[in-house]
Amino acid sequence: MTITPNPAVVSELAPNGVLRAGINLSNFLLVTGRAANGDPQGIAPDMAGEIASRLKVPLQLIAYESPGKLADAVADFSREKHDIAIAYVAATCGVPMMTDQAMEALV
Questions:
Q1: Who's near 33: CB < 8 A, 6+ residues apart?
Q2: How far apart are CA 86 and CA 47, in angstroms?
Q3: Which of 5, 49, 66, 94 pairs with 24 at a CA distance of 20 to 30 A?
Q4: Burial of 18: CB neighbours in 10 Å, binned 0-12, 13-18, 19+
Q5: Strands annotated E in 25-80
Q6: Where residue 96 falls among pLDDT bands split at 50, 70, 90?
Q7: Separation between Cα atoms, residue 91 and residue 69, nearest integer Å
Q8: What value does the mean pLDDT of the chain take?
Q9: Residue 44: Cβ within 10 Å count
Q10: Cα radius of gyration rounded to whole Å, the chain
Q11: What digits encode the pLDDT tens for the residues 37-72?
Q12: How confident is the model at residue 76, as a pLDDT?
């Protein structure tokens, strides 16, 4: 069964055609290391990859050394960094839900 992602969801999460995901490198439960190419590895990058896959868009991981650095990305008021920080807050402090519920909401 082929599932076509909802265009409104794709537009909201990847307005430039790429899903950008801010990754907090200091949380060893969510990021367990780095790949040979330097990309973060672990459940957070894996979930971002799965969301990008379901949206049928490329993924850009943006690594931050700490949650504070991720939050500071909002301070420059650029749309890109603001969106990443808002997505982080929504993912960590927003509406609690199971992963399968989040994945279903994307399509």
A1: 40, 41, 42
A2: 17
A3: 5
A4: middle
A5: 33-34, 40-41, 59-64
A6: very low
A7: 16
A8: 82
A9: 23
A10: 14
A11: 999 999 999 999 999 999 999 999 998 888 888 777
A12: 61
